[in-house]
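Subject: sequence -> structure tokens, single chain

Hey, anyone have a minute? Need the predicted structure for the following. Not urgent.
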Amino acid sequence: MQVEFDIKYLRSKKKVAKKLNLKKIVCRRDKNKLSIRVLGSDGYRILLTTKNNIVIFQDIMNHDKYDRLTKDC
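Reply:
Had a minute. Here:
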């Protein structure tokens, strides 16, 4: 799977987040679940999964909600 970023996206990303970290989540129900940690002033997580070579963005949440949802995944 190839991912490309438009120059506008890259400029916006610099304004919104200092760094994006992709992390695989150990989950019994969804073996392809990942999260992107958005570092910045508020600290949010983006949940996503992959299916048939398609990336599905599922939710954007704060760390408290992320911890609750992934605790017993």
